[in-house]
Specification:
The structure is a homodimer of 321-residue chains. Chain A is mostly helical and 321 residues long. Chain A has one domain: Orthogonal Bundle (Farnesyl Diphosphate Synthase), CATH 1.10.600.10. The first copy, chain A, contains 15 helices and four strands. The first copy, chain A, has a two-stranded antiparallel sheet with strand order 1-2. The interface between A and B is large, with 55 and 55 residues. Chains A, B: This is Geranylgeranyl pyrophosphate synthase.
Chain lengths: 321, 321
Amino acid sequence: MSCAMVLSKEITLKGHEHESKPTFNFESYMVQKAISINQALDAAIPFKGHHNKIQEAMRYSLLAGGKRARPVLCIAACELVGGTESIAMPAACAIEMIHTMSLIHDDLPCMDNDDLRRGRPSSHKVFGEAVAVLTGDALLALAFDHITSVSTMGVPPTRVVHAIKVLAKSVGHEGLAAGQVADISSEGLSVSDIGLEQLEFIHLHKTAALFEGTVAVGAILGGGSNEEIEKLRRFARNIGLLFQVVDDILDVTKSAQELGKTAGKDLVADKITYPKLMGIDKSREFAEKLNKEAQDSLSGFDSVKAAPLFAIANYIAHRQN
Amino acid sequence: MSCAMVLSKEITLKGHEHESKPTFNFESYMVQKAISINQALDAAIPFKGHHNKIQEAMRYSLLAGGKRARPVLCIAACELVGGTESIAMPAACAIEMIHTMSLIHDDLPCMDNDDLRRGRPSSHKVFGEAVAVLTGDALLALAFDHITSVSTMGVPPTRVVHAIKVLAKSVGHEGLAAGQVADISSEGLSVSDIGLEQLEFIHLHKTAALFEGTVAVGAILGGGSNEEIEKLRRFARNIGLLFQVVDDILDVTKSAQELGKTAGKDLVADKITYPKLMGIDKSREFAEKLNKEAQDSLSGFDSVKAAPLFAIANYIAHRQN
């Protein structure tokens, strides 16, 4: 199924099967949210001319497009528990800044050594390695600066502090960075050395942790209950892992042109992936299982309000790049 | 004057010249504070065994010693405006984590390519470049996680949010990272290309910004008034610049053994420094001027309570490594 097909698919919601059957237009939803997010990201780093190289480098990577899946998830989680897009937006931008930082650092020659990102030369190819390292650092710092601006919107400051703590934990040695180090440490090891448990540890930290932080932060700022936050965390853990399984599958089945980044890198880097460990077909089955578990985690929420999250899970499961 | 001499010097405070003339023992103060700070840093990243490489790498650099000048400044600023060491400690640790992050990234081959730090091999020499990049990222994230723990100590959450904003700004594209990028961009340029203004921009951002953030955060958490915070910011800007001028002087006058890091790097990297721009003697005069301006910024504060800050300024001015 093509990306456009998934995007344009109207999703019929359970429990609304009469005359006025509401449908959820995922494509329109994503386009609308992406416009708001891109505007907010653009405003977050006003450009002060070409002599300001770090701002130029931050904007180059942050405003390079991308699906904005994480910020949309943050907003959707916030709205699901009764919050608004405005309340979620500073956190949504913060999460995209953190995600962009991780891409810039991940592309460095000492890491994945990737020359292409989102169809353009990677940050270090344009600005040099040193500036790329610092650009990532500055984006990570800006994320924590930017998220605090929600406190001017009437959100109780205790919620803001809680959200910052959860966000920071999802990035550091209990989250994203821990997963990346475990990933690097597993390079060159054979399939027999690394089991599913270790691969899952890597992806739960490297990918799922930030997804989990993303929805938790949205739900916290939106005033969600502990039970709601926990359900959304479970949802995000599943789609996070799902995202990575699909990424692994795409890496071995798609060309660089289709992906907008160098394809086959995992094979070259001799990384353990789901397809290597369980084959393509079993990987696809696993992806479907994760998608189902993600959707099951949303039981109990209003199905109309939860429609964006159901749709995002399906989109991640069936994305083609 | 040796470091030990500066440390052991008892400072007599103005306005207390009668029988019970109180003196401030800087050495004892610094030793006591450093013990508390090192204990708090040690507790901030519990070590879960050698299989946890990122925690090992974080602890390797964070617990490698150092003078702990920044965390002490944070505590001293907090205490000066009526706060306590306990209230300042999470922020003080956060600042040391950020400082350590900047050292790890600064030492990378694509940056200063420094093999020695605090008398030991740099992070990337021990753990590899990729892990060093991620260790820095994780320390930066942990800083923002860790500082939130002050909210359990009865500090109003609005103050915590304010402190986080100020701290984040001091690290990113308006602070530390901006200064480092400007520094890199100036490499290879001749003295005639870079004036004092550009050199000051570099150091006000690369070094003074984090000092300024440090005392501002301490003062905010301690409940300081806007006027008090502004005075302390001025103090910190001066000692931050002072720190860098002295660093530049030491780099051309001391050996690697004395510094605990590779000496003469600035000369090799063809960096513009104060000694290059104005000569050693004028650089020393400039350092004294900055020290005086720093001390003048503290006028109006209780001189007994401000004693640690006066002493730290003197220490930075006269340090030998």
